[in-house]
Write a structure and sequence with these properties.
This protein is mostly helical. The chain is built from five helices and two strands. It has a two-stranded antiparallel ribbon.
Length: 106
Amino acid sequence: MEEKTVVASLAALAQPVRLRVFRALVVAGPEGLTPGVIAERLAVPSTSLSFHLKELTHAGLVTQEREGRNLIYRVAFDQMDALLGFLTKNCCQGQHCFTEATACAC
């Protein structure tokens, strides 16, 4: 992952509403959520939610897919994993410090 992409991802998450939206989508998993459900769960006005979803999508952290009349937003787990990998690449002085038991198996 390029440093420019990492900075864009972290900048997108460095805002309270976007962070809450991202975490809600992580919890939702591969099924994702519609904007209406996100707005209701997080008590965020739809008008500002669309701006935050656009920012997360632009940063590559969230994908958007049309299913019938609905838009479904999902976390781009590959991008999330790449970001986490970049941030932890040299932890523990470059030694592998995570066991298989602690790895996420979504």
